[in-house]
Design a protein that fits this description.
With 502 residues, this protein is an alpha/beta fold. The chain is 38% helix and 21% strand.
Length: 502
């Protein structure tokens, strides 16, 4: 079979500008696809973060005319490469929209507000309408005509619409097909119907079957309706979002798209996340040296958090955005019970101010048992994965999740709620799975502090009274392969199905 020509459109890319898991996918998947012999390019906005990243950026000589709300705005198309690859990244430069993430509290999509909260930039609809149109305008300057444009999340939800409604009649776009990936259905990009005037699309598209959502324009819905195929980042999440509990108001639409919807679990970049060569941890280790390696990393983790260095005290670690989706409320409710079970707890994350306050107060009450780092620290995230005995990830919902995959490789059995990608990647340590030698972690179904507590209690019972069984879970976890080549092969098959290129 011949190689495919693929353009990945994303609002963030790891190594250049990142707020979450979308950026990891937008960096790792193109590299893996290129490694499989495909011609791949990425397009993203030129944020201040890209400039500050220190990557070499070159001019392409292309100036794109981008229609927006009855006027035409100019932008330059710059070019760099994905870190550690030859995959080109095309950068849409328009400083009024994209170079505003330099000031304190200002990010790619949001700005800080009083009280520690964050709010979306009020012109996000305009910014990402512009970017989506620029993606299509960039196609003639790629050096190849894509077989497929792979758009991601609401920020590029209008790309399939523009492709079908505005560009399809042009020769360069006639055979281009589109895939739209939903990384988190909760973030939809819902705006006033007046935004339709900015798009230049015909007003009749704002109807319940296409772009309209309760009287508003919904960017995510636009991508779902107009893309040739839709996928999300795990098979279980693809099923969950067709139900009222997880569908965020779009479950009826998603049920209606039928086989157009599928799920592919994200991969893990083992170049960055593998204890065998991790530069961030106190001692590198493999499955053969995991006991000594984790002991050294545990002592280092306890030291970093100012906790007593007691090798026999189990450490429960959590690295997460401190928001309700991640189950931090469950952890805080169950945490006194964890301390009664003789554990230490370490937290790393940033999020809602109320959880910052609760964690700070909890640490103040138990300074010799609880460690808290508010914010994000790459090296410390690796140290938590390597030094913890169990990793807590009791998410309310989780489209895919990466930390549980990291935890597997680091021999830190994750404790997860069986939802989304957590259900697809973790085999729970039931007696049956322990006997079969397939267990890789611990999971529960009910979203409650009691269910989390009982699951941790069971995990600790194995850790303390059945160390051979616990060690087998660790070794089985470390043997799992959730690398990007597996995911890229599934995406390749989906691209071929959508584009009909064999």
């Amino acid at each position: 079979m011949g190689g495919l020509r693929i353009l990945v459109a994303a609002s963030e890319v790891a190594g250049l500008a990142k707020t979450g898991g979308l950026a990891d996918v937008a960096a790792s998947l193109p590299r893996a696809l290129a490694g499989r012999g495909h011609q791949v390019a990425v397009v993203m906005p030129y944020y201040g973060a890209v400039r500050r990243s220190g990557v070499a950026v070159e001019k392409t000589g292309a100036a794109l005319p981008v229609p927006l709300g009855g006027r035409t705005l100019a932008c330059r198309l710059l070019r760099t490469r994905l870190p550690n690859s030859d995959v080109p990244v095309y950068l849409v430069e328009h400083p009024p929209f994209f170079e505003r993430d330099d000031g304190p509290g200002r990010g790619l999509y949001q700005q800080g507000m009083p009280g520690g909260y964050k709010a979306d930039f009020p012109d996000n609809a305009e910014r990402f309408t512009f970017f989506s149109r620029a993606v299509l305008e960039a196609v003639p300057f790629l050096g190849f005509t894509p077989d497929i444009i792979h758009a991601n999340d609401w920020q590029t939800g209008l790309v399939p619409v523009f492709l079908n409604e505005t560009y399809r009649t042009k020769a360069a776009y006639r055979d281009v097909r589109s895939l739209f990936t939903v990384h988190n259905l909760a973030y939809q990009g819902v705006y006033s119907p007046d935004v339709m005037k900015l798009t230049g699309l015909p007003g009749w598209l704002l109807n319940p079957a296409q772009l309209e959502f309760h009287g508003h324009l919904n960017f995510l819905k636009a991508g779902i309706v107009f893309a040739d195929a839709v996928n999300t980042v795990s098979p279980t999440y693809a099923r969950e979002i067709t139900t009222p509990d997880f569908g965020c108001g779009l479950d009826g639409l998603l049920r209606g798209v039928g086989p157009k919807l599928s799920g592919i679990v994200n991969g893990c970049d083992y170049g960055d996340w593998d204890p065998a060569h991790d530069r961030h941890i106190a001692r590198r280790y493999t499955a053969d040296t995991v006991a000594a390696g984790k002991a050294a990393c545990k002592a280092d983790l306890q030291k970093r958090y100012g906790l007593p260095q007691k090798p026999d005290v189990p450490v429960l670690g959590m690295v997460a955005r401190l928001v309700s989706q991640k189950g931090i409320d469950l952890v805080l409710s169950a945490a006194p019970g964890f301390l009664d079970l003789g554990c230490q707890l370490v937290f790393l994350g940033d999020g809602d101010p109320e959880y910052h306050d609760e964690l700070t107060a909890f640490k103040a009450r138990h300074p010799d048992k609880v460690g808290v780092f508010l914010g994000f620290h790459e090296g410390l995230a690796h140290a938590v994965e390597a030094g913890s005995d169990l990793f807590l990830m009791p998410s309310r919902y989780e489209p895919c999740g990466l930390n549980q995959i990291y935890s597997l490789r680091y021999g830190t059995p994750p404790v997860v709620r069986a939802t989304g990608g957590l259900a697809d990647t973790i085999v729970s340590a039931t007696e049956e799975n322990l006997t079969a030698g397939t267990a890789t972690g611990f999971s529960f179904n009910e979203f409650s502090a009691r269910a989390l507590y009982e699951t941790v209690k069971w995990a600790l019972a194995l850790y303390r009274t059945r160390p051979a069984d616990f060690a087998r879970v660790v070794r089985t976890a470390m043997a799992q392969d959730w690398g990007w080549d597996r995911s890229a092969a599934e995406y390749e098959a989906l691209y071929r199905k959508v584009s009909r290129v064999v």
